[in-house]
Structures are given as C-alpha cells and as structure tokens.
Write a structure and sequence with these properties.
The chain is an all-alpha fold. It has three helices and no strands. The longest helix has 10 residues, at about 50-60.
Length: about 70
C-alpha cells in the first residue's frame, strides 16, 4: 500500500534563496546554451557555493596573515 505523506519537492528557484542567492538568480542552461532539466538544475544548485560565506572568505583573503 502506498500512502501519500504530503511532501512536495522544492523547485530549483526555491533552493537558491536559502543559500543567499538573489531572488532572480537561476542556473537554467549550460555554457553550451542547452537548457538543463529540473533534475540538473537541482544538482547544479547543490554543487554551488553560497554567495554570503564566499564573500566573507574572499574578504578575509585580502588581509595580511599574522605569523
């Protein structure tokens, strides 16, 4: 017997926001211009680097390191 547990899969655009990407950010095609499937878009989002922590790390890299 299959029971519906009322969960829904998040859409790719819904996955970017919690990671700190701008509201209009999308990864919907590759460098070759071919469109990604929803599965591929979710995969690309999962492999992405969130902008806020990366900006922090990049900013820290500009300071001299004290030894």
């Amino acid at each position: 017997m299959i029971v519906d547990i009322c969960l829904r899969i998040l859409k790719p655009a819904e996955l970017y926001k919690p990671q700190g990407f701008p509201a209009d950010y999308t990864i919907n095609h590759g460098t070759d211009g071919k469109p990604f499937t929803k599965t591929q878009q979710v995969h690309m989002c999962g492999n992405s680097v969130s902008p806020p922590p990366m900006a922090t790390l990049a900013g820290q890299g500009q300071r001299p390191v004290a030894h």
